[in-house]
Amino acid sequence: MLLSPSSALPLWPLPADASAHGPTLDAHLLLNLWIALALLALAHTLLLTGLVARRAHAHQPNPNEATRLWRIQYLPLAALTLLFSFLTLRAERLWAAARYTGPDLTAMQVEVTAVQFAWYFRYPGPDASFGVTNPRLVAPAEGNPLGLDPRDPHAADDLISSELVLPANRQVDLRLRAEDVIHGFAIPEMRLKQNAVPGETIHLHFTPTTPGAYAILCTQVCGLGHYRMSATLRVLPPDQFAAWLALKQKNSPRP
């Protein structure tokens, strides 16, 4: 049954979660939202209570005014300090697990190259090594959009694709590069977002868990063609991925 926009708005779910690390990130996000809602309700309750109490006791002296003010001012401040310290440490651990902790040694290696206005994905081939690239050899019309150097033996089996195809339930180590300007690599369902910066190779690792097709977006305005800079991530069962990779290796043009 289709829902009207007005009836679907109160639900407003997050994008489907299709990565191993996604549930932990979602739980932390929802925890932050519930805490913010609780603090909002508490703040309004205290304001209303204070207004009512002030009117009721406006002309009555209070010998314990100093103690009451101390409790009102410093105890909530101490409680908020502890709360936000807890949230900060929890978020830092999640960030460190994704960015500062390296991938498994068995992680699949894929290079992601951003160029106005397309994404290219390179697989190292059976030798497990990426070949050397040369900007002077870039020739998209000739099947060499990244400038693979044919003199490098490691480049002979490299596979370049316009879509990112990955096996389910295997960790992937992405190497993000940009050839011209800063591009934003984002896959909402994988809970991934990382800028690709010219002159840098940035690693990003994750484990896709749910087979399907997902949009790859550019979240940085990178020029007049930014609106059309998108690609597709396809997550396949391991046997289907192996068949796809073998077929692409067979049919892929060589520099």
How would you describe what is shown here?
There is one protein chain. With 255 residues, the protein is an alpha+beta fold. The chain folds into two domains: 22-56 and 64-99; 108-251, Immunoglobulin-like, CATH 2.60.40. Helices cover 35% and strands 22% of the residues. It is built from four helices and ten strands. It has helices spanning 5-8, 22-56, 65-99, 238-251; strands at residues 108-115, 118-123, 159-161, 164-167, 172-178, 183-187, 192-196, 202-206, 212-218, 230-236. The strands form two sheets. It has a five-stranded mixed sheet, with no helix packed on it. A five-stranded mixed sheet has the order 4-10-9-6-7. β6 (183-187) and β7 form a beta hairpin. Mean pLDDT is 84; it is low at 1-9.
Give the overall average pLDDT: 84
Strand count: 10
Read across the widest sheet, the strand sequence of neighbours is 3-2-1-5-8
CATH fold-type name of the largest domain: Immunoglobulin-like
What is the domain total for the residues? Answer: 2
Query: Which percent bin holds the helix content?
Result: 25-40%
Detail the poorly predicted runs: 1-9
CATH superfamily of the largest domain: Cupredoxins -  blue copper proteins
Q: Which descriptor suits the 3D outline?
A: elongated
Q: CATH top level of the largest domain?
A: Mainly Beta
Number of helices: 4
User: In oligomeric terms, what are we looking at?
Assistant: single chain
Beta strand %: 15-25%
Tell me which CATH architecture of the largest domain applies here: Sandwich
Instruction: Tell me the distance between the termini.
Output: 51 Å
